Amino acid sequence: MRFVGVVASLPSPSSGTLTIGPLRIHAYGLMIALGIVAGVWLMGRRFEQRCIGTRDDAAAIAMWGVVGGIIGARLYHVATDWSKFSGHLIDIPKIWQGGLGIPGGLLLGVLAGVWAMRRRKIPVAMALDCAAPALPLAQSIGRWGNWFNQELFGRATTLPWGLKIDDAHLPDGYASGTLFHPTFLYESLANLALCGLLLLIDRRRTVRAGHLLAMYFMGYGVIRFFVEGLRIDEAHHVGGLRWNQWVALAAVVGAGLYLVISSRRPLPVTTETIIEPDRDGATEPDREDAPPAPQESPD
Hints:
Layout (H helix, E strand, L loop, with lengths): L16 E4 L2 E4 H23 L5 H26 L21 H18 L4 H8 L2 H9 L1 H6 L13 E2 L14 E2 L2 H22 L6 H20 L6 E2 L2 E2 H22 L35
Antiparallel strand pairs: 1-2, 3-4, 5-6
Helix pairs in contact: 1-2, 1-5, 2-3, 5-7, 7-8, 8-9
């Protein structure tokens, strides 16, 4: 079925590159870079608030996480869309043309980040909780790269905020002027809301170490499941759902089970005061139980 926008529309950029004098910048990569900068800033700030590290520590950890994330995201995209690369292996490194699978990026990026945390002797669970709200913040900004590339939009719509796509990027079977769901915008706004929600939970509740990251995976899994349901780009389907929807459901279920099981475990016992033995081997009495000190007579 074909739809034509009738009220208003969200325009697409005329070009995916920004030209500043002799310099040409790929907007897709620029938005990802801006998202990384924002995420590292938030993560570093939370490191310092929790006194587990500095902003330099956050930047160093993020560097490894970003490298691992980009490699994992590209490998995931290539593996799940191999038909586009089987005869064009030279296109695999061309990430500026789009094509990063976030599930693979999160998996390899988190693993690389954990490795960097251990190297710098930073408590992993607390550091991951510091990174939890930074991840959706970075994703919220990076998703605008899809807008510049005119890709990964949803099915046709007559909504006034429908996305207008140039004829060169129109899928087969759709008439010129057809509007589509701006899934990049939906995911961007939802990720921004998720970032705010995680910060609010962390501020108002006492959350066990590691739980905030699990909440992120649950929240993002829900977001991705519904966004994937709107998209019309080619994808593998299993049981009537897109492959990425199954991955999103697995993230939600896995993170939910971790929260339930982990919450039932007793908290570790910590000793607030250590009583050291005196020279005779006896412990020093508490201050309240100690006999009163002798009073000196006034002069």
